[in-house]
Every structure is written in structure tokens, then in C-alpha cells.
Write a structure and sequence with these properties.
This protein is of the alpha/beta class and 138 residues long. It is built from 4 helices and 7 strands, in the order βαβαββααβββ. The chain is 24% helix and 30% strand.
């Protein structure tokens, strides 16, 4: 499924659509260039899931934890890791296999550790600065 967004006001609707197609997936992988809008989209998704606290990129902490509607949500950013060992060091398995929602930015940095099933979100920036969001269940 593809959705084209022409501005920030479209994010809320895109977040709702993603949550409709997520199915049983608890792991959501976000692919896109730097500045494509991965963190901004995750903020909108978290708002739809009832998160009241500030959602920010975990670039330096690698993982942030939020609470929404009584459920735990983990938000990862693997951009800065230099080796797979760093993912092991933070205990990625405990998060990924906890049964809680996990949003993962820069999943290509930990390709070999990704679970068998997940929702893939690809964000493509167009010349007119619009974004195309593609959702696919793997």
C-alpha cells in the first residue's frame, strides 16, 4: 500500500492507515534517507497510540521507551552504531521479542538480526518535497 503525503497535516491520516495495515506485526522497520521523515512519522504514530510524552529520536541513546494506552512502545535508531555487537549490548532481543511494539529506524544497520516477520515502511522523498510512504508486511 502506498500513500502520498504533501505536508505535515497528512501525517495523522498516514499514521492511522499504517496502524490499520499493521496486522499482528509488532516490529515496524522504517527505511528512508536522512531527513525523509522517519522520526516525524513515528511521532504521529505514537500520538495515535496514545503516547502523551515527548517523542524524540533516540540517535544517541539508541532506544527510547514510551507508554501509550497502557502499552509499552520501543523506538530504536541504529544510525550511530558501528557494529552488530552494539545491538547485542543493549539487549535488542529482549525488546524485539517482548511482544511490545518496536519502531526501528536504520534497520539496515542490523540486517542480520531482524526478525522473520515485520512491517516495512519505506519513505521516498519526491522532487516537489512530497513523500511517498510504502507499507509492506514481510
Amino acid at each position: 500500500m502506498d500513500i502520498t503525503l504533501h505536508g505535515l497535516p497528512d501525517l495523522k491520516e498516514a499514521a492511522k492507515k499504517m496502524l490499520e495495515v499493521i496486522g499482528d506485526n509488532k516490529i515496524v522497520l522504517f527505511y528512508g534517507d536522512m531527513g525523509a521523515g522517519k522520526t516525524t512519522f513515528i511521532k504521529s504514530i505514537c500520538a495515535e497510540l496514545g503516547v502523551k510524552e515527548t517523542v524524540s529520536s533516540p540517535t544517541f541513546s539508541i532506544v527510547n521507551e514510551y507508554e501509550g494506552n497502557g502499552k509499552t512502545i520501543y523506538h530504536f535508531d541504529f544510525y550511530r552504531i558501528k557494529s552488530i555487537q552494539e545491538a547485542y549490548d543493549i539487549g535488542y532481543e529482549e525488546y524485539f521479542y517482548s511482544g511490545n511494539m518496536c519502531f526501528v529506524e536504520w534497520p539496515d544497520k542490523i540486517d542480520e538480526l531482524l526478525p522473520e516477520h515485520y512491517l516495512k515502511v519505506e519513505i521516498h522523498t519526491k522532487e516537489d518535497d512530497s513523500r511517498v510512504f510504502s507499507f509492506s508486511s514481510i
